[in-house]
Design goal:
The complex is a heterodimer of chains A (604) and B (611). Chain A is of the alpha/beta class. Chain A contains 20 helices and ten strands. Helix content of chain A is 62%, strand content 10%. In chain A, the strands form two sheets. In chain A, strands 6-7-8-3-9-10 form a six-stranded mixed sheet, sandwiched between helices. In chain A, strands 2-1-4-5 form a four-stranded antiparallel sheet, with helices on one face. Chain B has helices at residues 8-25, 27-65, 70-119, 122-127, 130-144, 151-171, 173-180, 182-220, 222-227, 231-283, 289-330, 391-398, 423-427, 442-447, 454-463, 467-472, 490-502, 520-535, 552-555, 575-581, 583-589, 591-594, and strands spanning 352-362, 365-375, 380-385, 406-411, 414-415, 428-431, 508-512, 544-548, 560-565, 568-573. Chain B has a six-stranded mixed sheet with strand order 6-7-8-3-9-10, sandwiched between helices. Classes of the chains: A alpha/beta (604), B alpha/beta (611).
């Protein structure tokens, strides 16, 4: 095999936190993930500039009216005042509309961009290998596609562009100040230098603080979701107090982290005011000194003092936006972190091979598998299953038999060796074709909070009700369906919990049957069903499996008895294979032992 | 709920009511942050005063005389910097105070909401998806207390506004009244805003919950999605909701986008009116130019408080919606009432009496009907029945995960509904069909925080046949199992779950097909261990055992078998008796042997294997 396909040595694919992505990098990459954010940005910027003009309309109008309308040379001039008022009102309307249009555009582009990001991240979670998905708790994953994304929105609407405008205003104020007096402009900049320099320090602190906050939100949701999902255990063991203590701990940790971040924000924001005070004093003092040298007049110094406020306003707004930005960036990072997590089980996509329909032959070639950092679970497995055969895999719990199912269905890739279907390495088969041809029915079949019909349609999207009923009939489940409160329209509850474990397995089987696979992998799929029904289903499955290949992982040897061939796994190795009757006769063998205890259980 | 949704004034009032809750809860920190805000406002004014003072007393004299004392320069520096530092203190007090208040309220509400999650009955949980509950505890709580952040600023600037308005009246009554027309306009804009925003905001929070629901469920079922290749369809399902949320957010954004500039523009337009009226009043001699200027200037000052109050009001619709959603959880009824009876003591088995028990999910379709049976202390009863015959439901009634519609469950003479909280769990342990493990260590999963020594944990694991694989884990009892115990196989999870029950030495143990994922050999050993382990209790008779079983080896443990059919006890007796007289029972339990396909295999039935 080629080295490029070698998975990482210790399979260290955990979900990326994104916390080591720099702030600018986050924004840059965030924008590239959501190209909508750039749409119409120039127009929006123009509107922002126009909107900011609005702030000076009223002061100018007041000043003009005073000078020329009220205190005009020939006494108060009514028509001038009225016209000035009308002009100013029009100005206010225009700039207000510009502000409305700008914010609307920002809301539109950012919500669109973030919806794209949310959906991409959601999809990527599903594209990640099972093992990687399991490295992050569900609650935390949910926070990444919900509240983390929400944090970014505020910043994009009320921050990003305003920051650009603020920087522009600072530059304009600086140019005007330079025009009046370069020396005083220098003084102002010197007074603000400590603020600008300390910004980096505070940004780092804030970045850490907000990263902690976002992480704590994830932990909080995990701490809440676990006991909610396991409510029955919490209830029946009366461990509410202990569970609440754990949740409270997460709540407090989030509170502490948020308060800490807020402290940094408040402190960093207040620094701007101190710099402004310094700058005002500096301008007056240096102004007097410059006045002595004859470089500047008293009026110019005072005018300059007003210019400083034009400089201070946007600087303070800018720092405020920067501090708030860290919260958004912390959330953004976590979403981008998902997208950065490599989907090591790469779908070859359009280049992938497409399996022909019809029974599949399966080969394991020197397959070894180990969980990340663990000892090998399967070793030196070389095995061929001819197309159309029914194979049973048996072995003690923990012998590695479920691993077979996961490798066959490419939930995991082998650490070494390869699994071939119809002679093609599973890693080279397109995901779509693989999922169409190979279906796994796991022991604990997860159901979605919907009707049985909706759940069964996960196997075949367009299955009609008649089709589903026919399928149930074929599997011998018609009586069961008829006995349900609302038949196929019965709601199964969250995770299918309104049904018993056995019934959930029945729905999962029905789903798999409708999916019409060429290779069916059953991992103890009927373990929770009553014996009579299990046998009935077993017989139905045997009929249905003609013309397909099936691999059944079973601990009830009744299943093994019906298989064409039995493979016995012990401690990660295949130790026996052959027909039930042959294996059973091998005195002292693993299979004979399993069979003895099975019989002992049944024979009373 | 919802009755005031379309009423803007109602929603403003509701918004203030939500804030009032927070202020009553945190009066001191609220006062502190408001004082900070007032300090900030006062010092902003002081800044202008310092500039004026410096101009009059230092700058102008210095330019006139050509000299300046060092003391004057120091005074300028000290005044400006002093004011700036005090103002910074005001900012920190205001912002940090508001933050502390906001996060305290969030934490308090989250504790209350999650307490409610833990105390509401299973029946409530079945109706509320996990994702929605996460959204209630996270996004809705955040929304509810959102207005706390702009609150101190708004309150602080009210003083500024009152002073400015007072001065306006002193300057010119008529012009002041003209200027004050701004206020009804502000109120009108606010009412329109609240009206428009409320409905969409309600929808947005609802959609947030739905997005969270889909995400949680879909990630929970990731394996099914993957194995059936349904990623595109799941993504489409999520995208549909995410896009709906996007569209609603854009609508909310449009409304917000109009509200902010409208509020900002109103005082400006007021100023223009004042000027226009002012000119005519000056002409008629009713006012002098100075008064007009004063009123106009004061009105521009008022624009700042109006804006900051606008930020507050802007948060109201979302806050009111979030608070209502949270309140709905907090007010949810149906909490299971507990009695005050203590658990009966002792270590020996408990007596179980079930009397006329009935339960249904859907009216007219009883799941269980008129079940009556008793289990003597130390005895074992097997519940046998086809899939969906009501066995699991019965186990949830026995452990009071749900209450029956009729009849009662009595343990040691006490109706389980009369027991004080936690008392039933002290006597009865249930091992459910599907093991649920926490993201914790093996030890934590077994003890669940109970004070149990490692020796007892190992003993419980030994009986559950889990000691071998746990010992083989690198960290042994300290090994973490991952969320839902994903690092273990189904059979291993069941054994941990069984050990969790055994370590408590329950006086009544209920096993709901708890060894279905365990292979027969191990199962045989577990059953043998249970038999001897339970009997080895202190008393003459060991724990009472109720076991849902399919396999004959398990059934054979029982002193009595109850055969359930369609939610009723169809027959009862010993296994042998039922086998002999009840053909449907025999068909059920003998299924593995009767399989016609394999009946022809030589030696079937195992008679020759056992050596």
């Amino acid at each position: 095999m080629t080295t490029t396909q070698q998975p990482k040595a210790d399979g260290s694919t955990v979900m990326e936190t994104g916390e080591d992505i720099g702030a600018m990098d986050t924004i840059r990459r965030g924008i590239s993930h959501s190209p909508e954010l750039k749409e119409g940005i120039r127009g929006t910027l123009l509107l922002a500039v126009l909107a900011s003009v609005g702030q000076v309309i009223v002061p100018i109008a007041v000043q003009q009216t005073l000078d020329r309308g009220l205190n005009g040379a020939d006494g108060p001039d009514v028509s001038y005042t009225v016209w000035m008022g009308v002009a100013a009102a029009v100005g206010i309307l225009i700039t207000s509309y510009a502000s409305y249009a700008m914010t609307t555009r920002l809301f539109t582009t950012s919500e669109r961009g973030l919806a794209t990001l949310r959906i991409k991240a959601f999809r990527h979670v599903h594209d990640l290998p099972l093992l990687t998905q399991n490295t992050e708790r569900r609650g935390a994953l949910v926070s990444r596609v919900t509240s983390d994304v929400d944090q970014v929105s505020q910043f994009l609407v009320f921050g990003g562009l305003l920051f650009v405008v603020s920087v522009g205003q600072v530059l304009i104020a600086t140019i005007v100040m330079l025009f009046y007096s370069w020396q005083l402009a220098l003084v102002v900049w010197l007074c603000f230098a400590p603020l600008f320099l300390s910004l980096r320090f505070f940004q780092r602190k804030l970045s850490d603080a907000y990263s902690t906050v976002r992480r704590q939100v994830g932990l909080l949701l995990s701490a809440i979701s676990e006991p909610v999902v396991g409510a029955a255990v919490v209830r029946s063991y009366a461990v509410e107090a202990r569970t609440q203590a754990r949740i409270d701990e997460a709540i407090s940790a989030h509170q502490v982290a948020s308060t800490r971040a807020q402290g940094f924000t408040a402190f960093s924001f207040s620094l701007g005011g101190v710099s402004a005070g310094l700058a005002n004093a500096g301008v007056l003092i240096v102004g007097i000194w410059l006045g002595f040298a004859g470089d500047i007049s008293a009026g110019e110094v005072l005018a300059f003092a007003f210019l400083v406020t034009l400089f201070v306003g946007p600087v303070q707004l800018g720092t405020q936006i920067l501090t708030d930005a860290q919260n958004a960036i912390a959330g953004w990072r976590r979403v981008i972190g998902i997208l950065d997590t490599p989907a090591d089980l790469v779908d070859p996509g359009v280049d992938g091979e497409v399996l022909p329909r019809g029974p599949i032959d399966v080969r394991f070639e020197d397959v070894e598998f180990a969980y990340p950092g663990g000892p090998p679970v399967l070793r030196e497995v070389t095995l061929a299953i001819d197309a159309g055969r029914r194979l049973a895999i048996v072995g003690a719990t923990g012998s590695g038999k479920s691993t077979f199912a996961k490798l066959l269905t490419r939930l995991m890739d082998p650490s070494s060796g390869s699994v071939l279907l119809d002679g093609v390495d599973v890693r080279k088969i397109s995901e779509r074709s693989l999922r169409k041809s190979v279906v796994l029915v796991p022991q604990e079949g997860f159901l979605f909070d919907d009707t049985i019909t909706a759940n069964v349609r996960y196997g075949k999207l367009d299955a009609s009700e008649a089709e589903i009923l026919a399928s149930a009939e074929e599997l011998g489940l018609a009586d069961w369906v008829a006995g349900l409160p609302h038949g196929l329209e019965t709601k199964v509850g969250q995770r299918g919990e309104s049904l018993s474990a056995g019934e959930r397995q029945l729905v999962a089987l029905l789903r798999a049957h409708l999916a019409d696979p060429d290779l069916l992998v059953l991992d103890e799929a009927t373990s929770a069903v009553d014996p009579a029904l299990e046998m009935r289903i077993g017989r139905a499955l045997e009929r249905l499996m003609s013309g397909r290949t099936s691999v059944t992982i079973a601990h009830r040897l009744s299943t093994a008895e019906g298989a064409d061939e039995v493979v016995v796994v012990d401690q990660g190795r295949v130790v026996q294979r052959g027909h039930h009757s042959v294996l059973r006769a091998e005195q002292g063998s693993v299979y004979a032992g399993l069979h003895t205890s099975w019989v002992a259980q049944q024979g009373q | 709920m919802g009755d005031k949704r379309a009423d803007g004034r109602g929603s403003t009032r509701a918004g203030f009511a939500v804030l009032a809750v927070a202020i009553r809860r945190e009066p001191w920190i609220f006062t502190l942050s408001t004082l900070g805000s007032v300090l900030f406002g006062a010092l902003t004014v002081a800044d202008a005063w310092v500039l004026g003072w410096s101009t009059d007393n230092v700058v102008l004299p210095a330019f006139e005389t050509g000299e300046v004392g060092a003391g004057s320069l120091v005074a300028i520096l000290a005044l400006f910097v002093g004011v700036a530092i005090l103002r910074a203190v005001g900012i920190v007090a205001r912002r940090l105070g508001a933050g502390i208040m906001q996060y305290r309220m969030q934490a308090r509400t989250r504790r209350a909401v999650t307490r409610q999650y833990l105390s509401l009955p299973m029946e409530w949980h079945q109706r509320h998806p996990t994702g929605e509950l996460l959204s209630n505890a996270n996004s809705d709580v955040e929304a509810a207390w959102g207005p706390i952040a702009p609150l101190p600023m708004a309150v602080g600037t009210v003083a500024m506004m009152v002073i400015a308005v007072g001065q306006m009246f002193l300057a010119d009554l008529v012009l002041a009244l003209v200027g004050l027309l701004v206020f009804p306009a502000v109120i009108a804009v606010n009412v329109i805003y609240q009206n428009l925003a409320q409905g969409w905001m309600t929808r947005a929070q609802q959609l947030r919950a739905e997005v969270s629901e889909i995400a949680h469920e879909s990630f929970d079922g990731a394996m099914v999605v993957k194995t059936l290749g349904r990623e595109p369809e799941e993504t489409a399902r999520f995208a549909a909701k995410a896009e709906e949320l996007r569209d609603v957010n854009i609508r909310v954004g449009r409304i917000r986008a109009a509200f902010d500039p409208a509020l900002a523009a109103l005082p400006g337009i007021g100023v223009l009116f004042v000027l226009a009226f002012g000119v005519s009043r000056v002409l008629s001699g009713a006012a002098d130019a100075g008064d007009v200027v004063t009123v106009a200037y004061l009105l521009t000052i008022v624009s700042f408080p109006i804006r900051s109050i606008g930020w507050l009001l802007g948060e109201f619709p979302r806050s009111v919606v979030g608070y209502r959603r949270v309140r709905a959880v907090l007010d949810a009824a149906g909490e299971m009432p507990y009695g005050e009876s203590p658990a009966t003591g002792g270590r020996s088995g408990a007596r179980l009496d079930v009397d006329g028990l009935g339960y249904r999910y859907v009216p007219d379709q009883p799941l269980l009907e008129d079940l009556t049976f008793s289990v003597e202390p130390g005895r074992t009863v097997a519940l046998v029945g086809a899939t969906a015959s009501g066995k699991s439901t019965l186990t949830t009634l026995l452990t009071r995960l749900v209450d029956p519609d009729s009849g009662q469950v009595v343990v040691d003479g006490t109706d389980v509904r009369d027991l004080a909280p936690g008392q039933l769990a002290a006597m009865v342990s249930l091992v459910p069909q599907t093991a649920f493990l926490f993201d914790d260590t093996v030890r934590g999963n077994i003890t669940l925080g109970a004070d149990v020594g490692d020796a007892d944990v190992w003993e419980a694991l030994r009986i559950a046949q889990g000691d071998g694989f746990v010992a083989a884990l690198p960290a042994g009892l300290d090994a973490r199992l991952g969320e839902r115990g994903t690092s273990l196989s189904g059979g291993q999870r069941q054994r941990i779950s069984l050990a969790r029950a055994l370590v408590r030495r329950p006086r009544l143990l209920i096993l709901d097909d708890a060894t279905s994922a365990v292979d027969p050999e191990v199962e045989g050993r577990i059953l043998a261990g249970l038999r001897s382990g339970l009997a080895a209790g202190d008393g003459a008779d060991g724990s009472t055992l109720v076991v849902v079983a399919y396999r004959k080896a398990t059934i054979a443990l029982a002193d009595e078998v109850l055969h359930l059919e369609g939610g009723r006890i169809a027959d009862r007796g010993t296994h042998a008796e039922l086998l002999a007289r009840n053909p449907s029972y025999a068909r059920l339990v003998n299924a593995y042997e009767q399989d016609p396909d394999h009946a022809g295999h030589p030696g079937h039935g195992g008679e020759e294997v056992r050596t």
